[in-house]
Amino acid sequence: EKADNENLRSPICCIMGHVDAGKTKLLDCIRGTNVQEGEAGGITQQIGATYLPGENLRDRINRELKVHVGLKVPGLLLIDTPGHESFMNLRSRGSGLCDIAILVVDIMDGIKPQTVESLKLLKMRKTPFIVALNKVDRLYGWKTCHNASIVKAKNQQSKDVQNEFERRLTEIIAQFKEQGLNSNLYYRIKRGENEEKREKEEKGEREETISIVPTSAISGEGIPDMLLLLVKWCQRDMVEKLTYRDKVQCTVLEVKVNEGDGTTIDVVLVNGVLHEGDQIVVCGMQGPIVTTIRALSTPHPLKELRVKGTYLHHKEIKAAQFIKIAAQDLKNAVAGTDIYVVGPNDDLEVVKELTMGDKESVMNRIHRTGEGVYVQASTLGSLEALLDFLKTPAVNIPVSGIGIGPVHKKDVMRARIMLEKKKKEYATILAFDVKVTPDARGIADKHGVRIFTADTIYPLINQFKAYIHTHKE
Ligand code: GDP
Ligand code: MG
């Protein structure tokens, strides 16, 4: 009741889905830019974040849908995910920070393995999401209706195109059903349907129906619908969560060593204000890093952080924003951890402890028997997500050792202990999105320690399961 509607922060929205579904193109379409064609091989290599200001959001919606939205959020912060690292790193002390997600599915392809992985990540982090059923313009015979609402665009199509659309939609709804999810075209979900379901859910029953919005990232059909749906949903169901708070809440998404201006970190400021000159403590590989913010920059609104030479510099920035922080000694910062601002009344030692506590609690998640595989990941977010997967009843693989960063000789030596314990199958390193040094590889081969590598969770776990399986026979 007491939530201050006038003081909401921008929702943080992640774009997820399988490679080539059109995540980057969808963001391009929303912004009116063309990052996708400039990307090497069309594959997103870095995090792209875009701030869509309120006025723009309102215009896009009003122009096409002719509805007046009482906009309460200042804007929308959209984050493109290369693989799923940024989603995994958008965490704080074990919970997800992404307020909402768009899961992009190619209407011609349906659900693919990476879509399933996205679904599991979304479920694990309890992140609500909508589905963008993208590339509708690829339906044979589709008549382009630039930026039109999907209802209007669909009505302009021939009977054949409409039938083909329905056929594919039905198939994809069935595929979601196989994953245990109800879904439907967003305007076919009856008013009140989800409210009823939510009540049941509280009693432990099935979840609500997921909204599907058909889109084209090339010609813009369905984009206004998608934006309206996001805004309405946030303003109806997330007021509490989106109420702005003064206490700084800020998470490191990526650490970058740049030529020229040293090391920077890309962060998401969820709440509070950051200033140039603030003293901050960042979680480092070898311990807390105490440093001072030298510069704060953001992309221009509607541009993104990957587009060079478009930074805006700030003396201070208020949440929610995607920010590049330049400061000294950030080289060993751990992505996926929270940063702390040292206030005038804070005890630096206490802040340092707080900063390291989260990482330590993840690093301590080893099996009580001391028997299990060795897990190594690139960031705290990806490590935690992998540990969560390994722990699920369907997978259930115990872990005896944990590390962040490349696999070194010492990690192999630790995994080797399982051989002495007569647990040969556990003398294994699951290397998630990290490099294996040649030294480590050599020692592993010599001692019979297995190293499996992958940059997505499922293939990694499946390699290990296949190995265990053959090992047993
Ligand atoms: P991502 O890997 O999910 O980021 O996918 P991209 O945005 O890089 O898109 C992959 C390819 O699909 C590119 O060649 C895009 O031009 C194309 N594409 C994306 N969205 C659409 C769409 O709505 N319609 C059509 N026809 N092509 C699209
Ligand atoms: Mg992309």
From TrEMBL:
Cite the Tr-type G domain residue spans from the record.
8-239
Intracellular or extracellular location(s)? Cytoplasm
Family the UniProt entry places it in? Belongs to the TRAFAC class translation factor GTPase superfamily. Classic translation factor GTPase family. IF-2 subfamily.
**What part of the full protein is here?**
469 to 941 of 1084
Which protein, by its recorded name, is this? Answer: Eukaryotic translation initiation factor 5B
